[in-house]
Amino acid sequence: MTERRIVVGLIVAAIGLVCVLFPWAFYFLILAIGLASIYEFNFLCAIKGQPLEYPVAVLGVCAYIALAIFGILHKWEGVLLAGIVIVAFAIGMYGEQKGYFARTAYTLLAVLYIGKLLTYFVFIRQIAPGTGEGMALTFYVIVIIALTDTFGMLVGKSIGRHSWTRISPNKTIEGSLGSLAIVTVIATAAAWLPQLHIQWWQGAALGLATSVAAQIGDLVESAFKRDAGVKDAGAAIAGHGGVLDRFDSYLLGGVTFFATLHLVGILQVQ
Question: Of 13, 250, 215, nearest to 120 (Cα)?
Fold first, then answer.
């Protein structure tokens, strides 16, 4: 089962890397991941007894990604969030009154957790358009996160003895720290690639921060599933459960990578 998970995970990452070569293919992939993830998140909420205001959540995720693609999210995000809140509250009045607060709160959380966080991959891909730098950095972040997942599993299965948390007892301290160390070394070494235009210490910082965030993202989604009492959020990807199960680490990993680009001086605040 471990070998199958690794193979499927690497195939999924490879598909993502191919899509990175073509901006619109990559944007459609991000949108597809967002729509599949919001469907599965709604499934988790429904098990809890309070499904999302699903049409509002879908439109919110689509709007976030579309506004990011066209470079106007910074201008319209406030209006978008206000609209999501108002519409969710209004539509919720026509449903069952019990759980009204939870439905609207879950809807806003879902849009931010999935729609908002996925936009950072769009932002990374759009860095310095025409130079290839954004494409290279997108490859870089996907590889860092994919390797974090892979080495966490391999090291954990080999020498893992101590569980991090009851939320996900199969994730071990040894696997986590081993993955973190290996990925940081690889990210540091990759900084020598001229396409990235970064220094070795910047690569180390990006690898370290992104790997930590990816592991936290995995645990966050595990907490959602544990709260709902299910093993997987779906069954779309063989050996990995649902789309949200596969891309949970990317949600926090992407935003952390983007923030670290600013912190280490690779990107300047506009």
Answer: 250
Contact 205, 264 (CB under 8 A): yes
Q: How many CB atoms are closer than 10 A to CB 79?
A: 11
Q: Which residue has the tokens 């494409």?
A: 135
Please state, in angstroms and rounded to a whole number, the distance separating the CA atoms of residues 123 and 120. Answer: 5
Task: Kindly provide the residue ranges of all beta strands, DSSP E only, lying in 105-154, ordered along the sequence.
Answer: none
Q: Which of 189, 177, 185, 186 is CA-nearest to residue 143? A: 186
Domain that holds residue 14: 2-263
For residues 137 and 148, give the distance between their C-alpha atoms in angstroms, rounded to a whole number: 16
Does residue 80 form part of some domain?
yes
pTM of structure:
0.91
For 90, phi then psi, to 5°, come to: -65, -50
| pLDDT digit string, tens, across residues 129-166 | 888 999 999 999 999 999 998 898 888 888 867 777 77
Instruction: Tally the domains of the chain.
Output: 1
